[in-house]
Known about the structure:
CATH architecture of the domain at 354-498: 2-Layer Sandwich
Helix content: 55-70%
Shape: rod-shaped
Radius of gyration: 57 Å
CATH class of the domain at 354-498: Alpha Beta
CATH superfamily of the domain at 354-498: Histidine kinase-like ATPase, C-terminal domain
Largest sheet: 5 strands, antiparallel
Strand content: 5-15%
Number of strands: 10
Number of helices: 14
Structural class: alpha+beta
Amino acid sequence: MSTSDFPTVVDLANPTSIRTRVVGAVRSLVEAWRQLRLDHQFLITAAIVIAAAMTILGAWVSDRIVRGVVQNSAASTAVFLVGFFEKHVQGLASADELSADTQAKIDELVKTKILGNRILAIKIWTAEGRIAYSSDSEIIGKQFPVTDNLREAWSGSVVPEYNDLSDVENEIEREAGKPMLEIYVPVRERGSQKVVAVAEVYETAEELSSELGRAHVQTILVVATLAVALLASLFHIVRRGSITIEQQQVSLSERVVDLSNLLSVNRELQTRVANANRRAAQTNEQFLRRIGAELHDGPVQLLGLGLLRLDALKKRLIPLEGTGKRDDFEIIRSALDDALREVRGICAGVAIPELQDATLSTVLETAVRNHERRTNSRVEMLLHDSLPKTLSLPINTCLYRFIQEGLNNAFRHAAGKCQKVTATINAGLIELVVSDAGPGIAPAIRPLSDGHSGGLGLQGLKNRIEAIGGEFSVESGPNVGTRLVCRFNIDQLGLQDE
């Protein structure tokens, strides 16, 4: 037989294995405890606590009963015995032993029916622990260690002790095999309170033992009845509470499920609304592109053709100088030239470059570079290194429009002073800021500040940003410049169209 046939012995010899088993057992008990209902947990806990408390209470009450009964019995016996022995032990006040005649008289008293029915044995002690008299004549004159009970009796107290025969001199009493009440009775000198001897009396205690046994049983029954009644009443209350809690838990679970379903539906609706907003933004951009293309291919071309034809007619009108017709010609040509520039500006503001699949950095850089080229101004740009890469077209378009409108406002109202574009990431949010060092925007016109040359206006820009889940704010004050701020959740930035 190999050693592998004794895994249990090997495991028990391994402290780590023992620790693992103990931990596993404890965890199993804890898990089993958690699986119990609340009222069952209370029943077990309360039963243990009440049982321990009632056991202690029962033991204390029983002990007090025993002490009281024994003390009362000892007191009555002491009073009874002092009258018999007091006159016979007065000689111990001046001597350490009793005469043979006195011992014979005490023997006669012990053997009488009055004492013989109650007293099994008697000893008379001197202060040094010597026995001056004993029912067992063989130990008369012997000296034994002074016990605590004997010492207390010499101080003047009656000391009872129930069924404790452990002292050295109790050999004969132990052989009797009966329950006994051992009583130490101080015997005083006549006419004074001086203790001259201590009588140790052994009284048979069958009746006392029966009485104490009945008292024990009654105490146990009373305490047990009270414990059961207390436990039952508390368990009834806790069980009702436990049932109520379980019903509320079930109701709460159902409500949680309903709320979870509603939340799921709400999230789905929010997703649909967000996608609809993005599609609307994309459709709007396509519509603006179409308008820009129509303006470029229609009115712009016609205005250009008109200007060319006017230039062709210019030579024919040279002879008409000074007649006023030449002035009319210049007025018409100047108006058409201004109209062409206005229409081209509108086309430039409406049309945006292709932003499909562009990174956020590319979108921002494109908007800044186009602004610098149109306005011949300088824009400082600070971009975070971890900006998102691929974004949906509506979001790219929205962010492009935000930079475009912000820089247009900075150029128009602040003359392009300290134009700056910043893109940062903080706490899961991406923040875009367009700022300048101009005179600021007056609070009265800040919410509805309109753009120019195809601009969106701050209110339109705010609506566009909030439509796709972002936040828009304007921070400005007299002579402190203006900051246009938009924030998007990074997770939402990566959403694609359905």
